[in-house]
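Usage example:
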Amino acid sequence: MAKKELSRQKKFDTRIDFTPMVDMNMLLITFFMLCTTMLKSQTLQITLPTNEEVKQENQQEAKESEAFTVIIDGTSEMKDLNGQQKLVADPSAAKFYYYEGRLNLDELNMEETNMKGNAQGTMRYLLMKKNEAAIKLINKEKEKWQKGEINDSVYQERAKEIRNREDLERPIVMIKPTGRASYSDVVAVLDEMQINNISRFQIETLSKEDSTALEKLGVKLPPPPAQ
Amino acid sequence: MGKVKIKKKETRIDMTAMSDVTVLLLTFFMLTSTFLQKEPVQVITPPSVSEEKVPIEKLVTILVTQNGDKPQIYMELTGTADSTLTTEDLREQALVRVGEKFGVQFTREEVDAFRKQNAFGLPISKMKEWLALPIDERDKVLQQQGAGIPIKMNFDNQNLTEFQVWIQSIYAALQEAGAEEEMDSGKGIAIKADQTTPYSIVEVIMNNLQTIKMNKFTLMTALKTEEE
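Running the assembly step on the lines above writes:
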């Protein structure tokens, strides 16, 4: 009996079973896929004026016809998040107001606008009208770029040149968020500057006149926090 | 009539090809991945149309959250991609410089612990105590309400807040290595705040940067997905 079994030579399978190897690799891949950041976040570059007081003679008054002021308002409230008290703003409750040129409290030239779409009266429509001259020129370059007449870097350069051309009528946009406006809405307005090719804009704090005008429109602002 | 031979079918599938593919994929992921860094707070950055990418080197990220109606901020540093001033070196340089300004001496162990720390954000007076803690304890301390680098509205550039001292120290360290250009142009400073942060919070950080004449910086955003 025993002898018989010994003589029977076993045929060895030379192929290696790769299934466990694949299993392990799949696990590792899943791990790497979950732990990596493939999508890098984007950035939006802004330049603010310095806080230093500018001497009167160096100060450049914005031309009244060019000035365009956007006021961003919203709501924010204290919320309890995982046992921590945090002041949280609500991006969906944003309200936008604007006025052109100087604020006139008697005639109240401040009006409410919105950010939805580009129909008449929306923020995009208003800004587009203000920057019409530059946008027209840039669109011409864009057409050339789409037809393949000029390459991307040339188009970008020309667009930049047009955005900064002194001889065109370009607006200076003052962005004034109230303290309770959400960060996301401030970014949304900064986005509009990019969309409408506006090169001159700045973020400012709300002035007393602005608050008075807002009050006349029925917006009650909370008192500014003590410094 | 020939005999019908029934072929014995092999039931096992050859996994070699599959294995090849998975190994390739694995290599790809291993080479392209940068690991998600542990951050004290999770933020959802606001959507924007801007397509400019976050730089991968010479970057100061200012992570913003709120403590009640006050900002609570953390910092993350990235050094140069080459060996001029690595991320670890930049962290060390920044810590030592800030320590000097506030008269705090750090031991070698404390500096080494700081070199490995991704995000930080505590008053310099508590830094020594914090660096002595084990690494997972440290993260917990950062998440506590009231942590963060001290910051408040400040228009006086003679009397700086701790946050401003940090920024200036980091700038000085980068300048010494000849890598300050990114910070000058604003690409090297990124504010990372949640979309629901009230502007009053972000305003304090902008104000602090403005006062030390770092009035160029970037805001971290996520690419807008919906098409208008």
